[in-house]
């Protein structure tokens, strides 16, 4: 029944999304890009794709920073076009997608304030997807307490800050603890919103957000080894959701080494592949193992996102 009325509100936006997908670079395009020896070669290869105008007006010599800026600008432009044409509940869903970028932007400004930096200079480093109209107002704050009050009033993140911190916490807590507490609140809120929509949104986003929660839980565990963070404090940073929750979270809160993390995470069948190529002894080798694990977690997420997008009929 849902499919019968879908096109009334969602048909146009879905058509745009599928158009975006069809304009993405193909495996053949990427293979051609691997043969490029200079950035000018890359520009030439892209000229034969839907990215033909992507760098056309960029002066030579082409810089990698210019490519990054153009790519980000294209992404933001397309996203904002979708959001401006979306109706409820899609418009709220798209808002939620920007909150993670907002968190990173606000954390950047908090860090600058804590270290006495000119926060106006940091605005240029903020991700445009996490930009909101009152973000520059945060730069007016001259101390952490003023910044806290401004965040509570001026930003969409105010519920997360209000529920997680007091102004004094911003002075006392490590900045990464603040970030993880905000992400915990954000993921749980986003998950509840998706479940309230129901249907395929609840199913597909439930899986994706559960994985994101588990990934953060694993990263928090590993990154807390050898630090002053207590096991009780570590547990409080874990999102209360995911395939590892609750038993896996409880076990990870008590873990002391990477081998224990491996054993706990592998209790979830879907996550065994994260350690498939790791030799039994290499998981304890330190930074190299952690970097390899993070790469695999990223690959898993990308693969899941691709599979969730139903190809055009």
Written description of the protein model:
This protein has two domains: 86 residues, no CATH class; 217 residues, no CATH class. 65% of the residues lie in helices and 0% in strands.
Topology (elements, then pairings):
Blueprint lengths: L1 H8 L1 H12 L4 H7 L5 H8 L17 H22 L4 H25 L4 H4 L21 H11 L3 H7 L2 H6 L2 H23 L1 H26 L6 H7 L9 H8 L3 H8 L21 H22 L5
Helix pairs in contact: 6-11, 8-9, 9-11, 11-12, 12-16, 13-14
Kindly give the count of domains.
2
Specify the helix fraction band: 55-70%
Number of helices: 16
Number of beta-strand segments: 0
Largest sheet: none
Based on helices, strands and strand pairing, what is the structural class? mainly alpha
Q: Nearest-angstrom radius of gyration?
A: 22 Å
Distance between the termini: 19 Å
Strand content: under 5%
Mean pLDDT across all residues, rounded?
89
Low-pLDDT windows of residues: none
Topology pattern, helix = H, strand = E: HHHHHHHHHHHHHHHH
What would the principal axes of the Cα set say about the shape? globular
Oligomer class: single chain
GO molecular function: proton-transporting ATPase activity, rotational mechanism
Organism: Malassezia caprae
Keywords: Ion transport, Transport
Protein name: H(+)-transporting V0 sector ATPase subunit d
